Amino acid sequence: GAVVSQHPSRVICKSGTSVKIECRSLDFQATTMFWYRQFPKQSLMLMATSNEGSKATYEQGVEKDKFLINHASLTLSTLTVASAHPEDSSFYICSAPRVGGPNNEQFFGPGTRLTVL
Amino acid sequence: DAKTTQPTSMDCAEGRAANLPCNHSTISGNEYVYWYRQIHSQGPQYIIHGLKNNETNEMASLIITEDRKSSTLILPHATLRDTAVYYCIVRSHSGSARQLTFGSGTQLTVLP
After folding, report:
1. What is the pLDDT of residues B38-61, one digit of tens each?
2. How far from the centroid of its chain's Cα atoms is residue A51's Cα?
3. Nearest CA in chain B to A94
4. Which residues contact A83 (CB under 8 A, 6 or more apart)?
5. Residue A87 in 3-state DSSP?
6. Residues of B in contact with A51 (CB under 8 A)
7. How far apart are CA B112 and CA B109, in angstroms?
8. Strand, coil or helix: A116
9. H/E segment holding residue B19
10. Which residues in A lie closer than 8 A to residue B44 (C-beta atoms)?
11. Across all residues in chain B, what is the average pLDDT?
12. Given CB atoms, is A54 within the 8 Å cutoff of chain B?
């Protein structure tokens, strides 16, 4: 079946560091990918929509200058957390819909656990 | 997308059927009911979806009421590995590249 990968799976960094997270669709092309954030014991919250060949669209309250998204190809989207701070510590998850697939389902990556010290 | 309501948590004995309810009283005619689950510290996983007919696959069964205002996900023989948060999501297929909106879900705990 379709698989979405994320790298790294876990990152620990110092405050002020920029962190890049990659999301890849492994056996299908995705012109759109989604980035979610999940704090402990909470549900997934959509942060932004990554669009291949155009700018990402951000949800209200998400700073585009802090969470930089680049959809470099039809199989890769990257999320860069610029100058990360402890409050950015969270579980970041990407997803890619397989448009036209039998279930119109979205495939989720395994997530990236970010801890900012 | 229509809003859904699910119980916060449920327990189920291993080997027994787990029945997870979902209310979606404002569902519109072109909206499907999707179920995903999230095992702790992993990304969500698709389970099943349906429009108005009952559906079954290798993972679960989905029972949708005739008025479509509620549904039940059935795991016929729950195992410890089914312990997860289960999300019921209503969405239309039009613009199928749209994002999923997650509610609070139901924490299912399968007990040995």
Report:
1. 999 999 999 999 999 899 999 999
2. 12
3. B43
4. A16, A17, A18, A66
5. helix
6. none
7. 10
8. strand
9. strand B18-23
10. 44, 93, 95, 108
11. 93
12. no
Element (H, E) at B31: strand B31-38
The answer to whether A107 contacts chain B (CB < 8 Å) is yes
Cβ of A111 within 8 Å of Cβ of B101? The answer is no
The total number of residues shown for chain B amounts to: 112
Residues of chain A predicted below pLDDT 50 = none
For A114, other C-beta atoms within 10 Å of its C-beta total 21
CB neighbour list of residue B99: distance below 8 Å, 6 or more residues apart: A34, A46, A49, A95
Query: Is the Cβ pair A111, B93 closer than 8 Å?
Result: no
Rounded to whole angstroms, the Cα distance separating A91 from A32 reads 20
**Strands across the sheet containing B84-92:** B9-13, B106-111, B84-92, B31-38, B45-50
Is B2 a residue whose pLDDT tops 90? Answer: no
Q: Taking CB atoms and an 8 Å limit, are A43 and B42 in contact across chains?
A: no
- Chain B residues whose beta carbon lies within 8 Å of the beta carbon of residue A105: 34, 46, 49
DSSP B5: B
How far apart are alpha carbons A113 and A45 in whole angstroms?
A: 15
B45 and A CB contact within 8 Å: yes
Q: Does B59 touch chain A (CB under 8 A)?
A: no
